[in-house]
């Protein structure tokens, strides 16, 4: 009998005392038991570390040290990972249901699957029960990448061996290293993804990429650079990528439990 796949979930955190408990409890309540939760703290000073110490279970492994931003912190966490599969859960986010990681493990039981993704819901920063945007990713079609399609990054899991082979996040990006990485993995290296048709993650609004007009403009510039350097497209692909978001605001479904 094959050994069960292990999953490493990385959470990069810095001064998130208001949300980190929800994130930790979300991982701790998953019904899949072969999980390690790698919390990479950047030196929080707002009580985050105290909350982590109080709430952490056996799955949680904390390192607190200075870093050079969120993608550097994520890369540090990924280097600590020992699981067969790796993914992220940001410090403002929670899993949408208790069996998300069971679905992830089941999808990876197919040796032909390199990575998986699912659906995402953006929820109100102050009321996580209120859905403001529903991102239904849909089944994978490589040709759609040129039309601005991308999987929701917070739902994305990849085999650790492939992450180590093809590289993690380019820290020269401040906002769009996740988009650059997925273009590299899916377009350049043609990894084979599987779609899990459930809401996997609830993500609070007000994140790093959309908290101000300046950040939105900077993200668009970085997205354009990522498209160009990975040979996917340019301005048309970027425009289509942004237009795809409009439909997501029309699909405000309640999270599935």
TrEMBL record:
Coiled coil: none annotated. InterPro entries: Glyco_trans_2-like (IPR001173), Glycosyltransf_2 (IPR050834), Nucleotide-diphossugar_trans (IPR029044). Residues 8-147 form the Glycosyltransferase 2-like domain. The keyword Transferase applies. Pfam families: Glycos_transf_2. It comes from the Bacteria. This is Glycosyltransferase. It comes from Yoonia litorea.
């Amino acid at each position: 009998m094959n050994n069960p796949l292990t999953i490493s979930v990385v959470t990069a955190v810095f001064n998130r005392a208001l949300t980190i408990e929800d994130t930790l409890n979300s991982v701790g309540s998953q019904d899949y038991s072969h999980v390690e939760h790698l919390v990479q703290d950047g030196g929080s000073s707002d009580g985050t570390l105290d909350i982590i110490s109080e709430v952490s279970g056996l799955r949680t492994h904390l390192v607190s040290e200075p870093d050079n931003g969120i993608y550097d912190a994520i890369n540090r966490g990924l280097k600590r990972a020992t699981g067969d599969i790796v993914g992220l859960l940001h410090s403002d986010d929670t899993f949408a249901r208790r069996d998300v990681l069971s679905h992830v493990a089941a999808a990876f039981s197919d040796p032909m699957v390199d990575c998986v993704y699912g659906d995402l819901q953006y929820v109100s920063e102050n009321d996580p029960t209120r859905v403001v945007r529903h991102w239904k990713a849909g089944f994978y079609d490589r040709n759609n990448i040129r039309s601005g399609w991308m999987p929701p990054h917070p739902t994305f899991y990849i085999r650790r061996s492939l992450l180590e082979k093809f590289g993690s996040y380019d820290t020269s990006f401040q906002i769009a290293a996740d988009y650059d990485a997925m273009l590299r993995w899916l377009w350049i290296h043609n990894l084979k993804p599987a779609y899990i048709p459930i809401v996997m993650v609830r993500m609070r609004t007000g994140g790093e990429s959309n908290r101000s007009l300046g950040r939105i403009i900077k993200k668009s510039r970085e997205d354009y650079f990522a498209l160009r350097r990975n040979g996917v497209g340019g301005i048309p692909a970027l425009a289509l990528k942004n237009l795809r978001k409009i439909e997501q605001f029309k699909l405000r479904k309640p999270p599935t439990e």
